[in-house]
Amino acid sequence: MQRLRLAPPAAAGWHARPLLALLLWLVLPAQVSALTLGCLITPARVAEIGTPQAGVVDQMLVDRGDSVRQGQPLALLQAAGERASVRTADARAKAQAAVSAAQATLALARQKAQRAESLHTEQFISDIALDQARTELSVAGQALKQAEDQRAVYQAESAQALAQLNQRALRSPFDGVVIDRMAQPGERVELQPLLRIADVARLRVEVVVPASQFGQVRTGARHAVKAEVPGVPAREATVTQVDQVIDAASNTFRVRLALDNADRAVPAGARCQIDLGLKSP
To answer: Can you give the pTM of this predicted structure?
Structure first.
């Protein structure tokens, strides 16, 4: 009996290897890795402190790197003329002589009119005398009203002078840190800012995300942010804004997150790394 000889498996299956590889690629799940993106940490607010009026710097009360509180004076402009205007306007506003004199005149005119009414009832004076007493009472009342109106005008002028004086003191609009100082005492300033203040207790994280990941980032989600600064631990930030328009030139969109930094442990301006939970094949 003749035996059937079989070819070795290696020799028989070499034509099937490409097909086997294709089947494995279709069946087995693709390996994916987490997509870590670069980001930038910036202050939540930055304000340039200037003056609405031209003037000469009298004092700079803070310097670069100083922590400031909301309402704290930062710089003073020369204000000798404004202080004199405040004193003058305040003296006018507090003057009581004209009003007191008008009140006394009105009281006397009222008494005269009352007596005239009584005498006219008893027919001791004529109608003309009664009309004269009534007219004097009306005039006295108008004089008092005029004195009170004038005092109100002086009070308004006093408030205006005080407001102009307050504009000579520049104050911080919020709690923060002085990041730049652009003026010195004796320097004349008009339109240029004197200081730059940054709010570093609340930070922003700006991320540029590939357009292929559009729709995967949700507002309100929390993600870990690691500043590229030695000794600074990772912190969670909350997504506050996701751009709805993709930049055609770079084929990316922007994502903004809010990072609480009340202890000021994370430096603003640092580069960072963030994992938005995206996957790259």
So the answer is: 0.61
